[in-house]
């Protein structure tokens, strides 16, 4: 194989968040309508690599993914060693809006998966005027705890391998070994306690069941795409959101799991591309 560069460009954004300086890693490719992509808990923006390398997407869209603070190539703030990382819905929302402002994104499409899929429901409810459309992947209004989070941050347990083991069953059974293990590698590389801190939002603070029916799709279209092989956000959870939100669009994607954009990009794009056509 001849050497080649991918079209993706990465840069570091210095941004003040919560009265502290942050160094946030941002990748992008393509041009046109901004498509802001939010990664899952404990992982990073590499999950959207396939979208940034697909001309069917990048010819019309500026695809952008940033690593949240503490994740991927983004650094935690100075003094991180003296605190416990714990993500809240208010912090998550503020972070996304501040990154949008810094990048001068005018009404982007926002797409998030898992915790990203949950927070886009908050954005649809609280800030619909800021977005052209909202796409939730594996988006449910809540999730019932099904394992002890304390195992994710213990000195006698390998945190990265434990995180990957916990999510390994969420990958669809038809994913290739290459895509499956790349997806799991992102989890193996997570910082100590970061996955656990993200799940505070996912399992506790981000529960939006009491408010999700208030989303007004006349202000911003809402599209929900969920893989059928997922016990973290089961299809029934996504369908419950769709049934609660008048005017929303929902597709349950056959043979896909919790990480559709990284576990089987081709199959995922067969569902995403028609949605992008409807938006544009």
Automatic annotation (TrEMBL):
Molecular function (Gene Ontology), one example: hydrolase activity
Pfam families associated with the record: Abhydrolase_1 (PF00561)
Domain of life: Bacteria
AB hydrolase-1 domain residues: 34-143
Keywords: Hydrolase
InterPro entries, per database record: AB_hydrolase_1, AB_hydrolase_fold, Carboxylesterase_BioH
PANTHER family in UniProt: HYDROLASE ALPHA/BETA FOLD FAMILY (PTHR43194), PEROXISOMAL MEMBRANE PROTEIN LPX1 (PTHR43194:SF2)
Protein name, per record: Alpha/beta hydrolase
Protein source organism: Bradyrhizobium retamae
């Amino acid at each position: 194989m001849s050497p080649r560069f991918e079209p993706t460009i990465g840069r570091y954004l210095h941004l003040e968040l919560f009265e502290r300086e942050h160094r946030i890693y941002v990748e992008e490719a393509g041009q046109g309508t901004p498509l802001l992509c939010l990664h899952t808990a404990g992982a990073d923006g590499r999950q959207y690599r396939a979208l940034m390398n697909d001309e069917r997407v990048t010819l019309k869209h500026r695809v952008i993914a940033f690593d949240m603070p503490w994740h991927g190539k983004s650094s935690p703030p100075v003094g991180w060693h003296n605190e416990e990382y714990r993500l809240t819905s208010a912090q998550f929302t503020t972070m996304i809006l501040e990154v949008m402002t810094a990048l001068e994104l005018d009404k982007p499409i926002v797409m998030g998966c898992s915790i990203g899929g949950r927070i886009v429901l908050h954005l649809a409810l609280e800030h619909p005027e800021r977005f052209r459309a909202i796409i939730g992947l594996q988006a449910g209004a809540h999730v019932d705890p099904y394992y002890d989070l304390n195992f994710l941050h213990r000195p006698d347990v390998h945190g990265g391998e434990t995180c990957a083991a916990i999510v390994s069953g969420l990958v669809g059974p038809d994913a290739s070994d290459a895509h499956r293990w790349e997806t799991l590698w992102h989890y193996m590389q997570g910082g100590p306690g970061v996955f656990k801190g993200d799940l505070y939002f996912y399992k506790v603070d981000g529960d939006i069941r009491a408010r999700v029916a208030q989303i007004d799709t006349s202000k911003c279209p809402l599209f929900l795409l969920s893989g059928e092989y997922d016990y973290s956000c089961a299809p029934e959870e996504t369908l419950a959101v769709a049934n609660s939100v008048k005017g929303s669009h929902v597709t349950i994607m056959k043979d896909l799991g919790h990480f559709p954009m990284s576990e089987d990009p081709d199959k995922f794009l067969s569902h995403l591309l028609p949605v992008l056509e409807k938006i544009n």
